[in-house]
Amino acid sequence: xxxxxxxxxxxxxxxxxxxxxxxxxxxxxxxxxxxxxxxxxxxxxxxxxxxxxxxxxxxxxxxxxxxxxxxxxxxxxxxxxxxxxxxxxxxxxxxxxxxxxxxxxxxxxxxxxxxxxxxxxxxxxxxxxxxxxxxxxxxxxxxxxxxxxxxxxxxxxxxxxxxxxxxxxxxxxxxxxxxxxxxxxxxxxxxxxxxxxxxxxxxxxxxxxxx
Length: 211
Description:
Arc Repressor Mutant, subunit A, 7 helices
């Protein structure tokens, strides 16, 4: 982010919103976001904080006119907002509002347009996340990444749970993440960097013949 910890969001959910105040995106917002470049813009604002059309264009290899157009489309659905405390008439800054966002809208999934928009958004978000993960793994082999190796976690585990136990585990993990976000959201310093926190808890597919 331009200023590390500058009003980071609470999180992005792909399943039922775990917090009562999470915004569940309606079909209109999902359709506005359902564009690969808009997902990337939304992601950068979420992870790195406020940006201008120019800074986004530089990061994404796009024209300023293109990023400006997509910023306006996102703003129409209140997915992002203009920073009122910075910038000028010629250089507008944009940010993602603080708060959790969930793409799990049961009503939207009842319509073809809602399902299609949700699928595009989820595909792009997870593609971006996978690219970031693979880049970290690749860069982790270099000496510049050594300080972060012991503080990073890439782990997969399997256990056997009931739906109720899975819900309890998910709540505990979410509480830890919430605490970290609340504690460090405005932290600054020489060694401070944006850190993405991923948590996946889901049942494996039934392969048949399993005990």
